[in-house]
């Protein structure tokens, strides 16, 4: 028996509800910007610089005694956080004056203070200069990807399609940052990689719908634009939802069973798949209705209908 997420020939009136989508998306973007301005992001060690040590203790519920022990070392700000279970602890130390040698000395001091019976799973040292470069490179990567996508869509279709696609991508990126600001998940280079992956996935969905729009523009020269866009969305809806659904199955499994190290990446991807699918259907395509999209010469409506029959 086949699994059907949608009817054989869906006919949902997406375009008639575009004002609802516009209001929702505007509120989502505005709240994301406000959340980022107020709370900011919980930047990872990649962007803040300093020391991050992931340890597994021999016994659970030792975070209180560990905090008391490490605060006496004189290493500045020390943050401890349970990392999955109560015996997995993430230790964050501020960057030490004196460069890499001072940071390594701080790591050794932590190991000595914690004593035996501790499994050190990960140790990362990032200097402030390196963290600033990584932060700027992350911004450059996201902006460059969006601009490259704009140019690609512009040349493949028309400038109206490119502008619509970039608006939808900006919507996805800003909302993702807003969600990370709201829940204060760690935002690091892995998250930036997830944002870039989201952009690629979202534009893939958008291009599929745009291809059908372009094809229908050539077939139905007299069909009202709203009806044509709605038909194009419905004709690609099954493919879009099935692809997103199967991808989400893998990501949910990765989120729950992939370990803490890639959990933030998986979470960003899950959100990105959902919001990217939404923006492709409910933001990018409806925006074409407000732009002067040219109809290419091609078959007339009657001929197209005869071919389809």
TrEMBL record:
Q: Gene3D superfamilies this protein is in?
A: Multidrug efflux transporter AcrB transmembrane domain
Q: Which GO terms describe its cellular component?
A: plasma membrane
Q: What residue ranges are annotated as transmembrane?
A: 20-38, 134-155, 162-183, 189-210, 241-259, 265-289
Q: Provide the alphabetized UniProt keywords.
A: Cell membrane, Membrane, Protein transport, Translocation, Transmembrane, Transmembrane helix, Transport
Q: Major location, coarse class?
A: membrane
Q: Which Pfam families match?
A: Sec_GG, SecD_SecF_C
Q: Which domain of life is it from?
A: Bacteria
Q: Which GO terms describe its molecular function?
A: protein-transporting ATPase activity
| Protein export membrane protein SecD/SecF C-terminal domain: residues covered | 109-292
* Compartment(s) of residence: Cell membrane
Topology in the lipid bilayer: Multi-pass membrane protein
Q: Which InterPro entries match?
A: SecD/SecF_arch_bac, SecD/SecF_bac, SecD/SecF_CS, SecD_SecF_C, SecD_SecF_C_bact, SecF_bac
Q: Tell me the Gene Ontology biological-process terms attached to this UniProt entry.
A: intracellular protein transmembrane transport; protein targeting; protein transport by the Sec complex
**NCBIfam families assigned:** 2A0604s01, transloc_SecF
Subunit structure comment from the entry: Forms a complex with SecD. Part of the essential Sec protein translocation apparatus which comprises SecA, SecYEG and auxiliary proteins SecDF-YajC and YidC.
Q: Which family does the record claim for this protein? A: In the C-terminal section; belongs to the SecD/SecF family. SecF subfamily.
The entry's function note states: Part of the Sec protein translocase complex. Interacts with the SecYEG preprotein conducting channel. SecDF uses the proton motive force (PMF) to complete protein translocation after the ATP-dependent function of SecA.
Q: What is this protein called?
A: Protein-export membrane protein SecF
Q: Which organism is it from?
A: Magnetovibrio blakemorei
Name the gene for this chain: secF
């Amino acid at each position: 028996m086949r699994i059907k997420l949608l009817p054989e020939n869906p006919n949902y009136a997406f375009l008639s509800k575009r004002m609802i989508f516009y209001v929702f998306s505007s509120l989502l973007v505005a709240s994301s910007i406000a959340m980022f301005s107020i709370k900011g992001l919980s930047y990872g060690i990649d962007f803040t610089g300093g020391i991050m040590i992931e340890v597994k203790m021999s016994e659970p519920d030792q975070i209180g005694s560990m905090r008391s022990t490490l605060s006496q070392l004189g290493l500045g700000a020390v943050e401890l956080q349970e990392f999955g279970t109560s015996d997995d602890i993430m230790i964050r130390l501020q960057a030490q004056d004196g460069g890499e040698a001072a940071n390594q000395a701080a790591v050794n001091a932590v190991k000595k203070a914690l004593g035996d019976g501790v499994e050190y799973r990960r140790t990362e040292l990032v200097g402030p200069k390196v963290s600033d470069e990584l932060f700027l490179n992350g911004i450059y990567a996201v902006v460059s990807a969006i601009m490259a996508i704009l140019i690609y869509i512009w040349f493949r279709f028309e400038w109206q399609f490119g502008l619509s696609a970039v608006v939808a991508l900006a919507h996805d990126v800003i909302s993702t940052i807003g969600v990370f600001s709201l829940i204060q998940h760690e935002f690091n280079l892995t998250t930036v990689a997830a944002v870039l992956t989201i952009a690629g996935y979202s534009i893939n969905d958008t291009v599929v719908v745009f291809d059908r729009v372009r094809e229908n523009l050539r077939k139905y020269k007299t069909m009202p634009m709203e009806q044509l866009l709605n038909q194009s969305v419905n004709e690609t809806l099954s493919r879009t939802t099935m692809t997103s659904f199967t991808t989400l199955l893998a990501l949910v499994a990765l989120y729950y069973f992939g370990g803490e190290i890639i959990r933030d990446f998986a979470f960003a991807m899950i959100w990105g798949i959902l919001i990217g699918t939404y923006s492709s259907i409910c933001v990018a395509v409806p925006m074409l209705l407000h732009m002067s999209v040219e109809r290419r010469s091609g078959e007339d409506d009657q001929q197209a209908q005869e071919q389809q029959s």
